[in-house]
Amino acid sequence: MAETRTEALHQNAEGLDVQAPETILAFLANAQIEAGKAVHGAIPAIAVAAELIAKQLKSGGKLAYAAAGSSGLMAVADALELPGTFGIARDRIAILIAGGEEAFRTLAGGPEDDTEEAAAAVAAAAVGKGDCLIAISASGSTPYAVRALEDARSRGAATIAIANNRGAVLFKQADVAILLETPPELIAGSTRMGAGTAQKIALNMLSTLTAVHLGHIHDGYMVNLTADNIKLRDRAVRMVAAISGKSRDDAARLLEESRGGVKTAILLAAGAASADAAEKILEGTGQKLRPALSALGHDPEKWNPLFGRDHALTKK
User: Fold this and answer.
1) 158/167 Cα distance (integer angstroms)
2) Which of 115, 186, 266, 268 is surrounded by the most beta carbons within 10 Å?
3) CB within 8 Å of 170: residues ≥ 6 apart
4) Using the 8-state DSSP alphabet, how is residue 135 labeled?
């Protein structure tokens, strides 16, 4: 195998093991920061990928992640957050990681070469037409990730590839290729560090922009969250109060009336006749709150307390 950027020796690696602890840590910190900067070059591709994912999800499809090793852990970290943060149904998210559940205990290297397991995982998750699969591999040549992408594509799914090496095999059949050209690792080939950091940042960006397209974010608020614990229920109350200008008590009452739906509660505060009526308005605006407020006769541009503007609801 030809040496790739992710396997090359870092400029500060020589004599690393005899450096002072503080020097080693400074090198490690700087390497992570430099790796994170690589994401800037991928912004155009991430934007295209987010639009593609949102399109598939809006049409009723699901989002699948396929990866091995450290890249698999980055995928899991992103995928498991989507239902709670953005209210995307859990059955619309599939996680394909080499080694299956055993990977969470051992993260053995062997399964990343198992292309038959990858094919079986794609089939078991029923990834196909109308869905989208994101395959992630630092090297861009991990057999599990490559086969998962190939099979998903052959079954009619849209595909996105994320890799840290230019010219990666993974990019060849992907609808969207996201190159995160990170520098060599301080510990050569230890892609859980810089490459993994860049992957996590890119996935954060990708899933968040997807949520914007789906109407799950209003200003800086996660208005489609699943409020299933004390902290998140309190967050939901604070969001409704902040956006509508209502008191916390009123916001809590509106959330009860809306069956916990933040956007629905805000529309009730804005004058929607009932929770069902509010939800119907949201259906008509593609679940986006700003045009839903406009449909009720409010100027959404006056609804941004973060910038000191007056609340539209208090000044009808």
Assistant:
1) 20
2) 266
3) 135, 137, 140, 141, 142, 145, 146, 149, 161, 162, 163, 177
4) E
173-217 tens-digit pLDDT:
999 999 999 988 878 877 888 899 999 999 999 999 999 999 999
Distance CA 36, CA 30 (A): 10
Report d(CA 44, CA 147) in Å as an integer: 26
Catalytic site positions: 81, 112
Residue written as tokens 């992957």? Answer: 199
Q: How far apart are CA 259 and CA 313, in angstroms?
A: 21
CA distances to 74, 92, 128, 152, 258 from 64, rounded to whole Å, are 13, 8, 10, 9, 31
Q: Are 83 and 63 in contact (CB under 8 A)?
A: no
The whole-angstrom separation of Cα 115 and Cα 280 is: 45
H/E stretch holding 163 reads strand 158-163
CA angle 151, 156, 160 (to 5 degrees): 70
**Predicted TM-score (pTM) above 0.85:** yes
